[in-house]
Amino acid sequence: MNCQGLTPSWQARHPRPHGQSHSRNRRQRRPRQANRARPRPTRPAKIYLAARSLPKAEAALKEIQSKAGSNCAPIALLHLDLASLDSVARAAEKIKAQESRLDILIANAGVLGAEGTTKDGYEIQFGVNHLGHALLIRLLLPLLMHTAQRDDVAVGETRVVIVGSFAEKFAAPADVIYPFEELERGGAPSMMGIMARYGLSKLANVHYAAQLARHYPEGESGVRFVALHPGAVRTNLGELLKTWPRVQSVLRRLMGLFVGMVSVEEGVWGQLWAATWPVGRVDGIGEPRSGVFYHPVGVEGGGTPLAYDEGKAAELWEWTENTLKGYLEGA
Ligand SMILES: NC(=O)c1ccc[n+]([C@@H]2O[C@H](COP(=O)([O-])OP(=O)(O)OC[C@H]3O[C@@H](n4cnc5c(N)ncnc54)[C@H](OP(=O)(O)O)[C@@H]3O)[C@@H](O)[C@H]2O)c1
To answer: Which of 48, 166, 235 to mutate to test the pocket of ligand 1 (most atoms within 8 A of CB)?
Structure first.
């Protein structure tokens, strides 16, 4: 899967079913007769592909362009190392300097099985999968909210999609969640193995989306925050695990769970649905709701009880805000 997708100026929306209103919410808030007749472009005006390795991103870009041909939307590459808060801040600055709108942000990149710390000294899986994304989202939120206020954008059409995982279920033991002091020291409680630490970072993805929805309600911010598990997808995610002999039994267990793994093409359905399903369209899967955690595609309620623990989610929110304070001041 791609590293990270940021999509400004996304004006391409799925065609609305015949006779269906665009958005009741939007019309209540801001009547816009003139917009109805406006022709809608059929593709994003621009996509940012953010990656820690620009050579890899260039290769991915070439592949995308050759597959999409003349239909390919303009794609810009953006250097982003989620393991460095400075790098995240620089990437967000670049977007803000270059764009006047940002419609969709997909927080997709992730690591599984990595050991060590981020450049800022946090446990690596938590640092990359949660903290790096959290800073990116928070720094770009003003631009997203600004976009959501535009007359040609419906409430809830601006989206932040956070790719979590069913692996949130490995975030055990529940009584030590969240072990912030350990995570700050670059480690995690000794009873927490690699999978538990990965699970913890994915639990954080689910909690963070729920807290964003709580702190920035869609009716006020215009932005919808969605967390999802993409399914068991054949990607490079498990590569690092194979280099760790002592987790081979875990790997085998996982492989068992992964029976029925899907292709990358199918694995992105959830993200695409969450990012682009039109506001107010109720047929089929229906539209995603802010703060909800979905399994593929559009299935609610698949998480563990911990995934819906508002107290733990609030603790994570508070810690994250405090930790990122230096970067958020004045943003
Ligand atoms: N595959 C599954 O079955 C599955 C299941 C549940 C959830 N997920 C989630 O889906 C998301 C995508 O994973 P994937 O399966 O597509 O794995 P993947 O093929 O390994 O892709 C992960 C991407 O994240 C990038 N990345 C890693 N560390 C980064 C950093 N510090 N800064 C910026 N980018 C970084 C990687 O960049 P490089 O190319 O430079 O390594 C890679 O492009 C992850 O959040 C994962 O937790 C996957």
So the answer is: 235
Distance from Cα 226 to the centre of ligand 1, integer Å: 18
Number of neighbouring beta carbons within 10 Å of residue 14: 9
196-to-116, 177, 320 alpha-carbon distances in Å: 15, 11, 20
- Does the active-site annotation cover 198? yes
Tokens of 284: 């089929």
d(CA 304, CA 327): 32
CA angle 312, 111, 131 (to 5 degrees): 45
CA distance 16 to 37: 13
Output the pTM of the full model: 0.89
Q: Is the CB of 235 under 6 A from ligand 1?
A: yes
Residue 15 identity: P
Distance in Å, CA 128 to ligand 1 centroid: 10
For 18, half-sphere exposure in the C-beta direction (CA atoms, 13 angstrom radius) is: 0
Task: Indicate the angle between helix axes 133-148 and 194-215, nearest 10 degrees.
Answer: 20
Give the C-alpha separation, 220 to 91, whole Å: 26
Which tens digit of pLDDT belongs to each residue from 105-159?
A: 999 999 998 889 999 999 999 999 999 999 999 999 999 999 999 999 999 999 9
Domains of the chain: 5-10+42-328 (3.40.50.720)
Sign (positive or negative) of CA dihedral 239, 233, 198, 204: positive
Which atom of ligand 1 is the closest one to the Cα of 234? 1
Q: What is the pLDDT of residues 35-58, one digit of tens each?
A: 333 444 568 999 999 999 999 999
Ligand 1 centroid–CA 80 distance in Å is 13
Q: Phi-psi region for residue 109, left (φ > 0), alpha (ψ -120 to 50) or beta?
A: beta
